[in-house]
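ARCHIVE CARD
Drawer: 12
Card no.: 0347
Subject: one protein chain, sequence and derived structure
Cross-reference: see card 0346
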Amino acid sequence: MAKALTSAQRRVFRTRNKIRRINIDRVSTRETRARLSVFRSGKQIYAQVIDDLSGKTLAAASTLESELKEKLKTGADTKAASEVGKLVAERAKKAGVEKVVFDRGRYIYHGRVKALADGAREGGLVF
């Protein structure tokens, strides 16, 4: 018998499937986009730019990195999330990625997740 999914798992699958459908529709035009995935814990926030076709991470940033730790008071506020967004955008642009699809996972687009997205837009990513 199949194990029932939790509500958090259902939210993750729902958002990821929407993103996959967008990219599948774009495969014929070869205009697929990388995915900007967000994970937040109680104390930190992490972001990755992932190419789903090859299954590789193109760029990543988090509040655990030494260059951000020096600037930030804590890793769990909107200022920290904004800085992570700018840093991941800078690294993605170096990797040749300018357009992404934002994957908020199971999180509501609010607070730290929204601050990260705004920081990535300020850094030059388009989504």
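Annotation on reverse: The chain has a mean pLDDT of 91. Strands lie at 34-40, 45-51, 56-62, 100-103.
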